[in-house]
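Following up on my earlier thread - several people asked me to post the actual chain instead of describing it. Fair enough. Here it is, all 205 residues.
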Amino acid sequence: MLTLCMIVRDEEKMLQDFLKNIKSYVDEIIIVDTGSKDRTKEIALNFTKNVYDFRWDDDFSAARNFSISKAAGDWIVVLDPDELIGNKDLIKIKKIVNESKVGILGYRLIQKTFYKNTIISVRGICRLFRNDKQIRFVYPVHETVRESIKSLHKKIGKTGIIINHYPNLNEKKRDYYLKLLKVKKDRFPESNVDKEIMLELGQQF
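Reply from S.P.:
Thanks for posting it. Predicted structure:
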């Protein structure tokens, strides 16, 4: 059983089309709303009864961990409304979880982020993983479950699956992410946050 876990806020423009496309490829949908003022929750409830409120506290990991705590599936896939995966790759995800090897707790997908039809970043992210209470997101931004899987001395497999990411980028959002990245650097000095900060600063929004 595969559960889709999402955190959302003011996503009425994208959420319906996203859920229409993915609903037949997952067995359960969990949606956590962090303070929408538009029709996001209304749209979400048309696709799942599992819609929850979460008070935003400047920590993406906290919201992600709340979302995965509600999952009943054996496997979890984490996506956002501004991310797209092709139907063939969605079928591939189902096959992966059904045939997964012992010792692999998660799988890496490749996120390509676009701005004005240009790729501005490419990175591997573990967004598909077993529903295990020991697997949790860390970091207030650019959150990941990689560290918790590594601490269990388990493997993260590769898939080659592409996530095409089309964020609504603007200066206000960039400044907010930079703020969270600086918090991340203070709280987790061992993380490779300097490179992430330079990436945010280098993007011309």
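The domain at 2-168 is CATH 3.90.550.10 (Spore Coat Polysaccharide Biosynthesis Protein SpsA; Chain A). That should answer part of your original question.
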